[in-house]
Specification:
Number of helices: 11
Radius of gyration: 23 Å
Distance between the termini: 60 Å
Structural class: alpha/beta
Strand order of the largest sheet: 2-1-3-4-5-13
Bound molecules: alpha-L-rhamnopyranose
Strand content: 15-25%
Length: 335
């Protein structure tokens, strides 16, 4: 009996000590800033909602959401400058340029701010880790496979991208070009890559420009939620639906009408709410010292389960969903 009491006391002391230690190591009331490519993009508003969800679940987080009006590195540099002055604890950024943001992010890290990128990455020197929605190779290759199926592997195709400096789109486009080298696509030709800068009106004009410059165009891949929605509208306005096929990465809520009427028969995307949730969650756990942010580490990311950090400290969230007529309604209600 005495022995049991002794063991119990030891166990209780151990629990007490470990809780004091973890309390001492943990930061309370942290400020996490999510910095997106630009404001006014529903994709990033969904990321923000995911960030707010993580902040609520974890507690003790003041969540800040910011972005420039147009997607430029300069605009983001100005904001980071002010976030450094405000001494926020962490910055979670979707970058407008892979290299141009490195110096300012290094400065942020030197001043003690935890910097991670998500969605669109910064070069490894400028951040602790990058959370990609899915593997860039998988995204790039699958976009080509989708358009090829829609046009029976024949004819001219074009890409309507976001900004010319966007890390994520540029990586995907490289993989699209790799995939196009396969013999299966010998009768397809990539005739143009144009940039709508993730602005609806510019993307719309670029789409119209493609119809004009390439009268034999058979398909467009738009790997941006802003670009694909603007292209859907341009196709309808120019009465090109069905003549030119459209695929890419689209928000179901913005693309529902084009999916339903056949202007865009198939597209894909991951859940941006999950992406915002995961990146905010990871930033918080890095601040708490619970995650180290090292290659090979398996992070337990709340409702998302385990996410492993791979080479160059890039972690991959999952695989995209494919949207078509029969499942679009369900997803359009969520994001
Ligand atoms: C736009 C942005 C974002 C990208 C999605 C697919 O909203 O460019 O970075 O991930 O499209």
């Amino acid at each position: 009996m005495k022995k049991q009491k002794f063991i119990l006391t030891i166990v209780l002391i151990a629990i007490f000590i470990s809780s004091v230690v973890s309390f001492a190591g943990a930061k309370e009331n942290v400020r996490i800033a999510m910095l997106v490519k630009n404001l006014g993009n529903a994709f990033f508003e969904a990321c923000r909602d995911g960030g707010l969800e993580a902040a609520k679940e974890l507690g003790g987080i003041e969540f800040i959401f910011q972005g420039p009006t147009t997607p430029t590195a300069e605009g983001q540099i100005e904001i980071i400058d002010s976030l450094i002055a405000q001494k926020v604890d962490a910055i979670v950024i979707s970058a407008n340029d892979v290299d141009a943001l490195v110096p300012i992010c290094k400065r942020a890290m030197k001043s003690g701010i935890t910097v991670i990128s998500f969605d669109s990455g910064i070069a490894p020197e400028g951040r602790i880790l990058h959370l990609a929605p899915s593997s860039s190779e998988f995204i790039g290759r699958s976009q080509v496979k989708m358009i090829a199926n829609l046009i029976d592997h024949k004819g001219e195709i074009a890409i309507l991208s976001a900004s010319s400096q966007a890390t994520n789109q540029n990586e995907w486009i490289e993989w699209m070009k790799e995939e196009l080298k396969e013999p299966a696509y010998k009768d397809m030709k990539l005739v143009a890559v144009v940039y709508g800068d993730d602005l609806s009106d510019k993307s719309y004009r670029e789409a119209m420009g493609l119809f004009k410059s390439y009268p034999d165009l058979r398909g467009i891949i738009s790997p941006t939620t802003v670009g694909i929605a603007a292209t859907g509208k341009a196709l309808e306005d120019a009465e090109k639906s069905g003549k030119i096929e459209l695929t890419g990465l689209g928000l179901p809520s913005e693309m529902k009408q084009y999916i339903k009427n056949g202007t865009c028969r198939q597209m894909s995307l991951w859940n941006p709410i999950d992406l915002g949730y995961s990146s905010t969650y990871i930033a918080f756990k890095l601040l708490q010292g619970e995650f180290q942010g090292k290659e090979g580490e398996v992070m337990k990311v709340g409702r998302m389960g385990e996410i492993k950090i791979g080479s160059d400290n890039v972690a991959i969230m999952g695989e995209p969903y494919i949207f078509e007529k029969d499942n679009i309604d369900k997803f359009a209600e969520i994001y």
